[in-house]
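User: Sequence recovery, please. Input:
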């Protein structure tokens, strides 16, 4: 249980760092992240973008489509796209892999243990 809480904290910290960095770069016009109408995203919308990508990356859940939530800031330049890819690699991939590692594995007593070495 503790590990799950720490994973949530790590994800939240990573999302905040990437949201702040992206928002700052958009604010100084180094990156472009806008609505379809060309309006630059503020910090809340930029943060929502990173939450959207967390929910979008969960396998089989298809949460954004299920709740009819369109991606915030669909218009972006290469720098904003690079930040999103970096977030997925640096934050989401390790957190999701660690979470999967916490998932309890069911033991089957009728199957032979294949992890043990073969008898000599």
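Assistant: Recovered sequence (120 residues):
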């Amino acid at each position: 249980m503790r590990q799950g809480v720490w994973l949530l904290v790590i994800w939240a910290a990573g999302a905040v760092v990437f949201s702040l960095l992206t928002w700052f770069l958009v604010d100084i016009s180094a990156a472009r992240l806008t609505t379809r109408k060309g309006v630059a995203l503020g910090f809340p919308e930029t943060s929502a973008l990173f939450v959207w990508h967390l929910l979008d990356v969960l396998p089989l859940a298809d949460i954004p489509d299920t709740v009819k939530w369109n991606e915030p800031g669909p218009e972006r330049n290469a720098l904003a796209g690079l930040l999103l890819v970096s977030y997925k690699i640096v934050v989401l991939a390790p957190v999701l892999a660690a979470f999967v590692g916490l998932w309890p594995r069911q033991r089957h007593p009728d199957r032979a243990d294949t992890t043990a070495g073969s008898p000599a």
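The longest strand covers residues 33-34.
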